[in-house]
Amino acid sequence: EAQVTQNPRYLITVTGKKLTVTCSQNMNHEYMSWYRQDPGLGLRQIYYSMNVEVTDKGDVPEGYKVSRKEKRNFPLILESPSPNQTSLYFCASGVNGNSPLHFGNGTRLTVT
Amino acid sequence: AQKITQTQPGMFVQEKEAVTLDCTYDTSDQSYGLFWYKQPSSGEMIFLIYQGSYDEQNATEGRYSLNFQKARKSANLVISASQLGDSAMYFCAMRDEDTGNQFYFGTGTSLTVIP
Description:
heterodimer, A: mainly beta, 7-stranded mixed sheet, 4-stranded antiparallel sheet, 0% helix, B: mainly beta, 6-stranded mixed sheet, 12 strands
């Protein structure tokens, strides 16, 4: 089944403790991206990647890192999480930048 | 400036009626893509419909159609014959080639279908 898989679905952590949210797609998509969803703000793009080893900042990249070493994986790294990074995070992929995005099921992160 | 504006935080529609969800966008690029996504209460994001900036015909997908008015920079979603399962958040989004294929989403419209 074609899908984007994010893990974990729920994560509660403390300020400053490094964490990684994994994202993997099995559709051989070139384009992958991360978003955060906050009430009243919609979805905001954090980082995106047009292909392996190519990553670009979205609208809200501060406090986040990504890497794209393989086509299928695009992990989101929070080196030192802060409470303002408490949010619902989505990973998405697409054939390319022009095609519709396929979304993962989301990761609800709480930083205390 | 907001790239995508959805001015209707909440909408109600009677079952079997049609409803239009508004979306305006801001870009100086000639090449861009417009998308609509549905987010039910379960949280997943579901792609509904796509319109390319060079497409002359309005996009349609089943009960969904996109009313694309390029000069007005609007891309309204029309849902015909509303069903109870259409109750959800709806997000308009734009892929902007000017900014290197960044995606921009609106703040969403919550649609409630009344039986």
